[in-house]
Amino acid sequence: MRVMISGGAGFIGSHLVDLCLLQGCEVVVVDNLSTGRLENIDTYIWNRKITFVNVDLSDKLMVEKKLVRELEGRIDVIFHLAALADIVPSIERPYDYHRSNVEATINLLEVARHYRVSKFVYAASSSCYGLPEVTPTTETARIDPQYPYALTKYLGEEYVLHFGKVYKLPVISLRFFNVFGPRSRTSGQYGAVFGIFLKQKLEGKAFTVVGDGKQTRDFTFVTDVANVCLQAAKSQVVQEVFNIGSGGSYSINYLTSLLGGEVTYIPKRPGEPDCTFADISKVTRVLGWHPQVKFEEGVKEVLREIESWRKAPLWDEHSIQEATKSWFSCLS
Q1: Co-location of 62 and 203 in the same domain
Q2: Domain identity same for 268 and 193
Q3: Is residue 149 flagged as an active site residue?
Q4: Beta pairing partners, 264
Q5: Among 77, 81, 285, 289, which is disulfide-ready with 13 (CB 3.0 to 4.6 Å)?
Q6: Which domain holds residue 53?
Q7: Considering the domain boundaries, does residue 281 fall inside one?
Q8: Are strands 119-125 and 26-30 parallel, antiparallel or unpaired?
Q9: Which of 122, 149, 154, 190 is catalytic?
Q10: What is the pLDDT of residues 135-181, one digit of tens each?
Q11: Exposed / middle / buried, residue 236 (Cβ in 10 Å: 0-12, 13-18, 19+)
């Protein structure tokens, strides 16, 4: 196959690049490097099976020029993983998130129509469920986005399914739950818990745990996510939505015990669920996919790569309070 991976220099995308090359695919990596990093894929810089295209997918004219007019040959599968993430900046810059997560998705769907791809795999988000009423949460649960990031990712999914319906594009949407692992983003934004905790551990600082730490998350290892993306692409299944989780849900207190270190507790935040836990019975039944990496094994793997978080920002309870003012003012 010749596959296109948007966000291929990013966290999940670079692991999917690894897997696709291992499977003998030709890979076109599309990334504007706003959060992705070339070092995530620099191992393959001389590999003739990989092509890198620096383009902002929200720019329709550049997409047409670089991905349709200049890109030679066929594209069999498109994996759309590129997106702006994080809660606070989405509250502060909703239009940027609409452009990156909605308009960019439409532009890439048009590329998919041009190439008549055999599958368009969309990376959706479990944040669409908001504060789930029932856990484990099924794909039929009520949709209730709590902030612009969640809304724009869900709108992207709706466009993907709509193009599947109207234009008969073979599409699949995968709703990821709390993905973690090596190469997770280390930008200046206040974001995912692993990036915060690992930098704090490197600096010998206390882990800043939100609330009482008893809230649980469905931490899903990144290589399991890459595997299900490829499995979805190879399947005959179309026009479906699947939850992608680990099969378990683990407390933040348990995570800090595995990482090892002191803890300081900071105020609970509005709009955050007490539990995220995917019901993955549909994806295991329909695609035959099962997560392979246990949570504890994944944490050990991350700790082996802890030096890669050396350049990440160091957060403490005071800087977090300042960074999340918009969160409290808008979601309370």
Answers
A1: no
A2: yes
A3: yes
A4: 208
A5: 81
A6: 2-179+220-244
A7: no
A8: unpaired
A9: 149
A10: 999 999 999 999 999 999 999 999 999 999 999 999 999 999 999 99
A11: exposed
